[in-house]
Write a structure and sequence with these properties.
It is a single chain. By secondary structure, the chain is an alpha+beta fold. Helix content is 49%, strand content 22%. Among the domains are: 191 residues, Beta-Lactamase, CATH 3.30.450.20; 143 residues, Histidine kinase-like ATPase, C-terminal domain (Heat Shock Protein 90).
Length: 524
């Protein structure tokens, strides 16, 4: 009797919605488990008395696909699996994984549909952003706590439900055939699931394994869970089943001998005799893990490419500056000298005035080319040390843009590796441009110091600031260097960038890079 009660309780109180529906166009509900009220806010009676309730709650964008699945079942297809969104009573939108099977009718019973709806909202939210693993871990923790709370609630309700169901059986004299029908219904639902499901007793016996589990691990044949899943003869040292049997829910990753990775969720299920079994769900995340590894590899390559791009850009800028100096500047200087020679010849006043105007144009062109050469060479400023290069950069911006820039340094750093030097100076120049063009700053403070084998360069302004969103630190609209490229270039060096800002609070950005100091006469 306890086993029968356990199965009947399981169908009603498993952490999912089970249902039986007519095989009509809108899937009119005949029975739906009590979990529907906890998840959607509607009672089971509302679904039964208003046949179109389920249809109305489905998101309009998903109805066509869901109705096609119902039509497939009515047309004779044995099982369909659909995922769709459905509205709760308070307007929230949940994602469900719905697996339904068609139950043929007989003389006494018309054909019907039986299925199980799993709330996968947490999984959908997690998978939407694998590019940010810390966010994913946070969401997994939140989802775990949510499931843990749900399982605790279900456990308490299960004990109460077992007692109520026993009284109901005694009162109404439920027959063995009805209990067997309930067991068959549960088995058909679990057998139709795409995820693996098993139950393990407190003695570590595998009480149940659905077809997905047996296809992956083979027939159970009365084996203990540690024999069946791990191929060992005793309880695993790292086994977490003890926590589950103590009433806790556990989430963990399992790597099978076949090379697959599973996301496991273990929940305690209290039996009618007071003992606890472990209900375990297996979700195959092998492909997702491969995608995560690939994403990390792409990020590493992107950092390397960003750093290499800076070096290539610097070499090209230096080459262009040399060409301008060697050809354009010298040619303009030669024209200027020749013009001065001609001016000493007998000329009319009008002609002399014309030559003076031409000389003025040439002086402007020479000044512009000299300024252009300086701008092109600004990222490395060869011939001076790192501190002098930063100070020269500050003076140039101060003169050109009328912005007050203070420069502070703590300690001396003789020479820095060429790649680190280029990236840091280019980064400071980009941050100064941002302070002038975007932050509308009036004052900027630049400082640097050597600490914990790293160089720390801080750029602080009193501008309008901005709301920091690290996921949106991307390339500028016009392909500029941008905060994204600064961050990736520093990561390539083994450093990082921190940003503190807020509306009307100014901005503080710190660049950190490992020290790779080159001393005269030897390399350290």
């Amino acid at each position: 009797m306890g086993s029968e009660t356990n199965f009947h309780s399981f169908i009603k109180y498993t952490p999912a919605i089970t249902y039986t529906a007519k095989a009509d166009e809108i899937r009119s509900i005949l029975y739906i488990s009590p979990q529907v009220e906890k998840l959607l806010g509607f009672s089971g009676q509302e679904f039964i008395t208003k046949p179109d309730t389920w249809y109305r709650l489905i998101h309009p964008g998903d109805r066509g696909r869901v109705m096609d699945a119902v039509s497939d079942l009515r047309a004779g297809i044995e099982k369909v699996v659909t995922e769709y969104r459905i509205f709760t009573r308070d307007g929230k939108l949940l994602h469900f994984h719905d697996q339904a099977v068609a139950i043929p009718g007989d003389r006494e019973n018309p054909p019907c549909l039986q299925g199980i709806m799993l709330d996968i909202t947490g999984f959908v939210n997690i998978l939407n952003d694998i590019t940010d693993r810390r966010q994913m871990e946070k969401e997994l923790l939140i989802y775990h706590n949510h499931l843990d709370k749900r399982v605790n609630e279900l456990t308490a309700e299960l004990v109460k439900a077992n007692k109520n169901l026993q009284r109901e059986i005694d009162r109404h004299g439920v027959t063995e055939s009805l209990l067997q029908a309930e067991r068959d219904k549960l088995k058909s639902i679990l057998d139709a699931m795409d995820d693996g499901v098993c139950m393990v007793s407190s003695n570590y016996d595998v009480e149940y394994a659905n077809p997905v589990i047996e296809r992956e691990f083979g027939p159970v044949k009365g084996r203990k869970c540690y024999e069946y899943f791990h191929g060992v003869g005793e309880i695993c040292l790292e086994c977490n089943s003890r926590d589950v049997f103590a009433g806790k829910s556990v989430r963990w990753e399992y790597h099978s001998s076949s090379g697959k990775t599973f996301d496991l969720y273990d929940a305690p299920i209290r039996n009618s005799d007071g003992s606890i079994s472990k209900l375990e769900f297996f979700h195959d995340v092998t492909d997702r893990k491969k995608d995560e590894v690939m994403l990390l590899d792409y990020q590493k390559k992107l950092r390397s490419m960003a750093a290499e791009l800076s070096m290539v850009e610097e070499r090209e800028r230096r080459h262009i500056a040399m060409d301008i100096h060697d050809y354009i500047s010298q040619s303009l200087a030669a024209v200027k000298i020749k013009l001065e020679t001609i001016k000493h010849s007998p000329l009319s006043p009008d002609t002399l005035e014309g030559f003076n105007r031409i000389g003025g144009f040439i002086d402007e062109a020479i000044g512009y080319t000299q300024s252009l050469i300086t701008d092109l060479s600004i990222s490395t400023l060869q011939g001076i040390d790192f501190s002098e290069a930063l100070e020269w950069l500050c003076n140039q911006f101060q003169e050109r843009h009328g912005i007050r820039i203070s420069f502070e340094k703590s300690g001396e750093i003789n020479l820095i590796g060429e790649e680190t030097r280029v990236i840091l100076i280019k980064s400071v120049r980009e941050l100064l441009n941002n302070a002038v063009k975007h932050s509308k700053a009036k004052n900027v403070k630049i400082s640097y110091q050597s600490r914990n084998s790293k160089i720390h360069v801080t750029v602080e302004d009193d501008g309008i600031g901005f709301k920091v969103d690290h996921k949106k630190l991307r390339l500028g609209k016009n392909g500029g260097f941008g905060l994204f490229s600064i961050r990736e270039s520093l990561n390539h060096l083994g450093g990082n960038m921190t940003v503190r800002s807020g509306s009307s609070k100014g901005t503080v950005i710190t660049l950190k890079a490992p020290l790779k100091i080159l001393r005269r006469g030897r390399k350290n």
